[in-house]
Amino acid sequence: MTKTPLYLILSACLLPLSLPISAELYKWTDEKGRVHYSDDKPEGVRLEEVKGTVNSYEAVTFDESDFMHSSNVVIYTKPKCGFCNRAKAFFAKNGIRYKEYKIESSALAKRKFERLNATGVPVIFVGKKRMNGFKASKFEKAFCKQLNPCKLS
Fold it and tell me: Does residue 124 share a domain with residue 71?
């Protein structure tokens, strides 16, 4: 009996993990006019398949924006976004009031996000200044002077 080399066994086991993973997302409106999103295909409703993905930013970048938001800090988020959660925790810890737009559960937030031509979340605005991604030290450096009073610890 011949022995199968370990690398062949490992390759065969790990190959399925390297294949692309896809999921379908469905959108529908209930009888009360509320919009719902789900990865489970509900029965008995008119469905709209949602295409595309929203990524998290891996690095922080800054831009000037034509969009002006009325509150001091505005953040666009999606569920299970670690950078979004870190930003919101940072805001809470430092007493920074913010307006959150949840782009996967609000049609209005999704439309606003799409107009930004953003490729990931979080997207954070302070006035017309835009931050793609989040890192506390970079947020402090870029925005502390604009937030009055600056309560950062």
Answer: yes
- Within 10 angstroms of residue 76's Cβ, the number of other Cβ atoms is 25
Compute the radius of gyration of the chain from its Cα atoms.
21
Give tens-digit pLDDT for 63-112.
666 555 555 789 999 998 999 999 999 999 988 889 999 999 999 999 99
Q: Same structural domain for residues 66 and 119?
A: yes
Alpha-carbon span 72 to 84, nearest angstrom = 17
Distance of CA 140 to the CA centre of its chain: 21
Q: For the whole model, what pTM was predicted?
A: 0.57
Q: Do 32 and 81 fall into the same domain?
A: no
Strands in 30-105 per DSSP E: 35-38, 48-50, 55-56, 61-64, 73-77, 99-102
- Residue 25 half-sphere exposure, CB side, CA atoms within 13 Å? 10
HSE-CB for 27 with a 13 A CA cutoff: 12
User: 97 CB contacts (<8 Å, ≥6 apart)?
Assistant: 71, 72, 73, 91
- Domain residues for the domain of 47 are 23-52
